Amino acid sequence: IILCGKVLGGGTSLRSLLLGPQTKVINAKCENCDEETFAEFNFKCVICDKVAVPLTHVRGYGGKGECSICGDETMKVVVDVGCHHETCIDCFIAYLEMAYTQQQFVIRPPNGYTLTCPVYGCRGCVTDAHIFYLLGKERYADYQRRATEKFISLENEGIFCPYAECGAAFLWEQDT
């Protein structure tokens, strides 16, 4: 990490700089000029060098435990939606595909149209919609469309275009 052109010490980590899952800017105090400043960063693909979105629910795993779906104890990559029910990546993708196919997403304010933890009865849910990238670009775009339609249909002022194949939606605002 570089601030004002100076590389921070090896003990500095993103976690110690209070980096949130959606943060692109880290507030910091520069060691050189003693000014409040920031460092901006982006994750980039090592192959194409384009900006990539980090999947905050996905992480490497080297601890003890088992997949909450299949019971695998040799998980290398897990998905944890914040409730500590860890699921191996293969099972979570299968769970995502099943939920997508069967339209089992739920509305959970403030997260919107989302997916619950795969463990029955758990109140945990996906808080970062980018996890749906695991379904592929086309299905991710379809998920976004469905989520928007669901949001608009739940709003009292939500109106869809009456023309078939249009799909446009509007929120009606009355003049006051």
UniProtKB/TrEMBL annotation:
GO BP field: protein ubiquitination
Keyword list, A-Z: Metal-binding, Repeat, Transferase, Ubl conjugation pathway, Zinc, Zinc-finger
One Pfam family matching this protein: zf-RING_14
Every RING-type domain range: 63-176
One Gene Ontology molecular-function label: zinc ion binding
GO cellular component, one term: cytosol
InterPro entries: E3_UB_ligase_RBR, Parkin, TRIAD_supradom, Znf-RING_14, Znf_RING/FYVE/PHD
Presence of keyword Zinc: yes
Keyword Transmembrane helix: no
Name the record gives this protein: E3 ubiquitin-protein ligase parkin
